[in-house]
Amino acid sequence: MQAVRFVAVGELLVDVVAEGSGHDARIHVCPAGSAFNAAVSAAAAGAEATVIGTVGDDPAGRMILAELTGRGVRAEVAFSAGPTGTFLVADREIRVDAGVSHAVVLPDRIEADAVLVSGYLRTETIEAALSRAHAPWVALDAACLPELPSGGNVLVTNEDAARRLTGKGPEESATELGERYRLACVTRAALGAVAVLDGRLETAAADPVDGDPPGAGDAFAAGLLVELARGAELGRALAEGCRWGALAAASRAG
Fold first, then answer.
1. What SS3 string covers the chain?
2. In whole angstroms, what is the distance from residue 174 CA to residue 217 CA?
3. Position 213 confidence tier, pLDDT thresholds 50, 70, 90
4. Looking at residue 252, what is its pLDDT?
5. Measuring CA to CA, which residue among 155, 160, 168 is closest to residue 221?
6. Phi/psi of residue 105, each to 5°?
7. Which of 13, 144, 166, 200 is the most buried (most CB within 10 A)?
8. Of all residues in the chain, what percent carry a pLDDT higher than 90?
9. Using an 8 Å Cβ cutoff, are 205 and 242 in contact?
C-alpha cells in the first residue's frame, strides 16, 4: 500500500521548557513548532511527511532541519533574514518570539492526501495555504484565531478555542462547527476528543496526560488526518489521534 502523503504548513521553532529556579532548574531544548510537531508524528505513523515553513540562517534553524531529516521528514523550508523563532515555557508561563517562523513561502500548489495548516500564521498566509491545498482532507488548526478564514474542509480546535469561537461546550461546538466543515474536531486534553463528520458525532477517550503539553494537539491532528487518509472510520481515527497526542505528551514529560 502506498504511504499517505501528509503536509504540515506552519511554524518551525525551538522549544525551551524551564522548570525550577537557580542551579536546581531543569531546562529542555528541542526543535518544535506546529508544523514540526505534526510532521514528525505523521512520519512516525508511517506517512510520507513534508513540512512547509521558514527558519533563520542560524544554528537553531540548522538544528531543526537536521532533526527533520533524521526523522524522515521532507523539508520544503525557506531561510529568511532574522532569527529562528523560539517558544519558551518557564514555570508553565508561555512566551513566544516568532522570529521568522511566520514568513512562510508557499508553493503554488500543495498536493497530498492530507494537509494541515497552522492557525498561528498570518491570516493571508493561512488563506493562501488553504486555497492552494489539493487533498481530500484540508485541515485548519484554529489555534488562537478570533475568527475562521475561508477554505478547508476540516477544523481542529482545542476546547478553549472552540468555546471562544462558538460560546458553547465541546459537543455543541463540534456540532455547530460541523455545519461549516465536513469534519469539526474539538480536543479535550486528558478527556479525549469529540468530532462531527458528515453530521455524525463521535467521541474518543485519551490516555491520562499532565495538562495539555505543547505539541500534543499537533500530534493529535496528524494522527487523526493520517488515519482518515487511510480510509479509517472516524472513531478509529479519533482514537489514533488521541494515541499520538498522548505519545507526544509523554515525550515532553520525559
1. CCCCEEEEECCCEEEEEEECCHHHCEEEEEEECHHHHHHHHHHHCCCEEEEEEEEECCHHHHHHHHHHHHCCCEEEEEEECCCCEEEEEECCEEEEECCCCCCCCCCCCEECCEEEEECCCCHHHHHHHHHHEECCEEEEECCCCCCCCCCCCEEEEEHHHHHHHHCCCHHHHHHHHCCCCCEEEEECHHHCEEEEECCEEEEECCCCCCCCCCCHHHHHHHHHHHHHHCCCCHHHHHHHHHHHHHHHHHHHHC
2. 16
3. low
4. 61
5. 155
6. -100, 115
7. 13
8. 82
9. yes
Which three three-digit cell numbers place residue 63? 538544528
3-class SS string, 121-143: CCHHHHHHHHHHEECCEEEEECC
Q: In what order do the strands lie in the sheet with 26-32?
A: 26-32, 13-19, 85-90, 93-97
* pTM, 2 dp: 0.94
Average pLDDT over residues 42-54: 98
